[in-house]
Amino acid sequence: MNTAAERKHTFFANTVADEQEYVSKTIYNVDHFNLWYGDDQALYDVTLAIPENQVTAIIGPSGCGKSTFIKSLNRMVELVPSVKMNGSISYAGQDIFSSGYKVEQLRTDVGMVFQNPNPFPKSIYENVAYGPKIHGIRKKKVLDEIVEKSLKGAALWDEVKDRLQENASGLSGGQQQRLCIARCLAIEPDVILMDEPTSALDPIATAKVEELVQSLKKDYSIVIVTHNMQQAARISDKTAFFLNGEVVEFEHTDKLFSNPEDRRTEDYITGRFG
Amino acid sequence: MEVNVKNMIKQKETNRFFLRFTEKAAPVFFLLCAAISVLTTIGIILTLLVETTAFFSRVSFWEFISGTEWWPFGENPTYGVLPLIAGTMLITAIAMMVALPIGLASAIFLSEFASEQTRKIVKPVLEVLAGIPTIVYGFFALTFVTPVLNTFIQDLPVFNALSPGIVVGVMVIPMVASLSEDALRSVPNSMREAALAMGSTRLEVAMKVVLPAALSGIIASFVLGISRAIGETMIVAVAAGSTPKLTWDVTESIQTMTGYIVQVSLGDASYGSTAYYSIYAVGMTLFIFTFMMNILSQYISRRFKEDY
Amino acid sequence: MNLVDKQTVQSSMTKRLVKNRLANSLFFLAAAFGIVVLAILLYRIYSEGMGYLDWNFLTSFASRFPEEAGIKAAIVGSLWLMAVTAPVSLLLGVGTAIYLEEYAKENKVTRFIRMNISNLAGVPSVVFGLLGLTVFVRLMEMGRSIMAGGLTMSLLILPIIVVSSQEAIRAIPKEQYEASFAMGATRWQTVLRVVLPAAIPGILTGGILALSRAIGETAPLLMIGALSFIAYLPENVWSGFTVLPIQIFNWTGRPQEEFHLVASSGIIVLLIVLLLMNSIAVLIRNKFSK
User: Fold this and answer.
1) Can you tell me the distance from the alpha carbon of B170 to that of B20, in angstroms, rounded to the nearest whole number?
2) C43 and C104 inside one domain
3) Interface mutation vs chain A, best among B4, B7, B8, most A CBs within 10 Å
4) What ipTM was predicted for this assembly?
5) A134 at the C interface (CB within 8 A)?
6) Chain B hits for C159, Cβ within 8 Å
7) Domain B70-303 in CATH 3.40.50.300
8) Tell me: the pLDDT tens digits for C178-203?
9) Rounded Cα distance, C22 and B202, in Å
10) H or E, element range at B149
């Protein structure tokens, strides 16, 4: 049986990135990846290795391709009809663009949280149970347990436990976003992709989500896109700086923010542009 | 006991034949649904073609399109479709004289002059007017409009072209009004503001700025209105009579193409007779007329679509 | 030197303002015309038709005598017709809309289907009657039955249902799709669990409005030969039948004045049915538009 643990193990051998300091396994390996929308190239030769069980932040000015990049990791970018790409992205050792690779399987293993909270217009319970249900889990008792566990995991349980049957649209923006995280946790993914998850939230809600990200780190690999540099500095282990569709620098967060190698990175983090 | 969702999903994944089957079958099923609408069109054209061919094996095509008399019943039937076309044209002309000015003026009122509250009253009324079954309009033409007209016009026969023509016009008003209003409203507000800021009155803005900009949409709505009037059946079947005539006299009883088809289907012709096949030939003529109008309307609104 | 003569501008101003006022009232009159006609029509029908409208009218069959004539067979016939038309047209219409919005690739076939639907919407209803008469009544040998009438009506209102369902589906935010796909849901699961539940109010509203069109249609059913004088209730979908508008048409065609009053009563019943259906549609729309 090909369990997650086993995959991690076999993958350990392939690890290329970053052997000196952190001996961490790579979950995603992106190799010379290019992407076009129609004739406009959005990503140029992106090459990086995303470590397991860490928080990887992607920063950069708007329009730099960071959102496109994170959406490539679970192939959501393919919902845009005109998209073309080459190069490779491998997840757990398998090229996700190879023919016969099941995109539904990928998206089951890799959850995603979006920029704007997008709960379904259903009850809180049904929102969280959506994932398990589409994957064939129907037993009420099991679902109840999953819903509770996921909502607790997303630090939302105490706030909503008495109104699970109410429509999710009645929640505040921050609660909705945590609900979306709970929905994502419900199918126990290995990786969670977050595309600017706090950009639509107020500071207090943002702090809650950041706290949550920290606590999720031990069980999940997290990739988070943010245009908020302080946020990246606060919560991430590694940071990639994107500019005009290229990776300018990919480093440990402390290093990138304190002692960047590239001039452009320095200009960006010191606020000279962006 | 801790649930392990991951393993459960894995296990379920292996025996979900039903899901995999529906995933494949669903698009096929939906494509079949979409195919029905295409089949309907093919069915209409084939039906009309086949039965019209049968008709033309008995009546010469030339007689049909150039004959000035239509009298399919009795000893010496004649099948000249021109009187039916003339009847249809007459009704359509009267209807358009009512529907186009009133429909367009209502549209201009709703889009350029009316306050939000007035709109909230007038729009639903127009929708109700559009939702009234045509048989009700027919009844209204016969039992109200004709007697009223009779007080102005001496010796107006019970069946005449004028009354159903007017009522067909009333029926078409909501359609012309709502499509024209859509066209007017799609003109961006910045254009209105520019003109108003120079001291234009509302009327000048409407007539000199908005109307020209929305012209293609308005004309497209007119053409659709004409098409609708040509195809209208029950009002004319009830109130226009059944005497096909080449005439421009609106006070006379006439017959339209649609009116004739209804008359025959009410039992004036037995299955397989020439008169029976003639409804398909008339139906084909009607179909061609309305089809051309619809294509024309689509062409106008697409070809002259303004880019704001 | 002034190129613009202020004097001229001033003097033409009054004229322009008067014109504006005049036009305003003229346009208002045009818009009010519809309201006036509707008021006259409703008043006429109400005042003529109330006399015959009683319990007997609702529970009697058609008769040669105006005071005994009733509308029972027509009401039941209309209900039977809806029982065929509603499921068939909704299934086909929603299916087509889902295909066009969710599955169709942008190519010639898709464009053809779209163009075909908008053209079908403009085909006169009598022509649908000819189709029904030829294909359902004769070719498929359904006879002049409810089934033949119901299928004809389904095809007639199909374009309306397709278009309104498409609009309902298009109104669903892109984010909902993203959320579903990102959970590993397939297209079909997304359609079934996200798209349809969210689009159902819009689909129902459009569907009911389309059905109310079908309930008032007369011509296609005259073509396929719905009867106007039946003294029995349909037993199944293969029975002969009459419907409200055909019964009204029949009464309208009688020379006796009294039957025109009976026709008015019939129209009141038909309009009440339509009013009910439209109210339900509006209720659904308001309930879910929040």
Assistant:
1) 54
2) no
3) B8
4) 0.92
5) yes
6) 37
7) no
8) 999 999 999 999 999 999 999 999 99
9) 11
10) helix B146-152
Question: Is A138 part of the contact surface with chain C (CB cutoff 8 Å)?
Answer: no
Q: Residue A2 has what pLDDT? A: 45
Q: Are residues C136 and C15 in the same domain?
A: no
Please judge whether A111 and C178 are an interchain contact, meaning their C-beta atoms are less than 8 angstroms apart: no
What CATH number does residue C183 fall under? 1.10.3720.10
The percentage of residues in chain C with a pLDDT greater than 90, rounded to a whole number, is: 70
Residue C186 sits in the same domain as residue C45: no
If one compares A145 and C65, the residue with the highest pLDDT of the two is A145
Q: How far is C10 from chain B (nearest CA, A)?
A: 12
Chain A residues within an 8 Å CB radius of B10: 1
Identity of the residue in B5, B7, B13 whose CB atom sits nearest the CB atom of A132: B5
Average pLDDT, integer, range B101-124: 93
Please report, as a single letter, which amino acid is at residue C131: L
pLDDT (0 to 100) of residue B308: 58
Residue with the larger pLDDT of the pair B193 and C65 = B193
Q: How far apart are CA C271 and CA C42, in angstroms?
A: 10
The answer, yes or no, to whether residue A21 has pLDDT greater than 80, is no
Q: Is residue C132 located within the same domain as residue C156? A: yes
Contact assignment for C184 to A184 by CB distance below 8 Å: no
- Please answer whether residues A34 and A86 qualify as being in contact, where contact means their C-beta atoms are separated by less than 8 angstroms: yes
Q: What is the DSSP string of B64-132?
A: HHH-S-EE-SSSS-EE--HHHHHHHHHHHHHHHHHHHHHHHHHHHIIIII--HHHHHHHHHHHHHHHHS
Tens digit of each residue's pLDDT (9 = 90 or more) over C206-233: 999 999 999 999 999 999 887 767 778 8
Q: Note down the domain range covering C70.
A: 57-289
Are residues C155 and C23 located together in one domain of the fold?
Answer: no
In tens, the pLDDT along B26-77 reads 999 999 999 999 999 999 999 999 999 999 999 999 999 998 899 888 788 8
Neighbouring C-beta atoms of residue C115, cutoff 10 Å: 13
Q: Do A187 and B13 touch (CB under 8 A)?
A: no
Verify that C174 and C35 share a domain, yes or no: no
Whether C277 and chain B come into contact, CB under 8 Å, resolves to: no
Rounded to whole angstroms, how far apart are CA atoms C24 and C18? 10
Q: Is the dihedral of CA B165, B166, B168, B169 positive or negative?
A: positive
Q: How far apart are the C-alpha atoms of B101 and B107, rounded to whole Å? A: 10
Q: Chain B: nearest CA to A185, how far in angstroms?
A: 10
CB–CB contact A118 C175 (8 Å):
yes
Does residue C18 sit in the same domain as residue C155?
no
C255 near B CB under 8 A = no
Confidence bin at B8 (pLDDT 50/70/90): confident
Residue of A nearest to C182 (CA): A107
Closest in B4, B9, B19 to A108, CB measured? B9
Query: Quick check: A131 contacting C, CB < 8 Å?
Result: yes
Q: How many domains does chain C have?
A: 2
Q: In chain C, what residues touch A187 (CB-CB under 8 Å)?
A: 183-184
CB contacts, 8 Å: C116 with chain B: 37-38, 41
Whether C182 sits inside 8 A of A180 (CB atoms) is no
Instruction: Give me the residues paired with residue A191 across strands.
Output: A110, A221
Q: Tell me which chain B residues have a C-beta less than 8 angstroms from the C-beta of C95.
A: 29-30, 32-34
Q: CA A241 to CA A267: how far, in whole Å?
A: 11
Residues C7 and C90 in one domain: no
Model confidence band, residue A217 (pLDDT cutoffs 50, 70, 90): confident
Is the CB of A120 less than 8 angstroms away from the CB of C176?
yes
How confident is the prediction for chain A on average, in pLDDT?
88
pLDDT digits (tens, 9 = 90+) for A43-96: 999 999 999 999 999 999 988 899 999 999 999 999 888 899 999 999 988 999
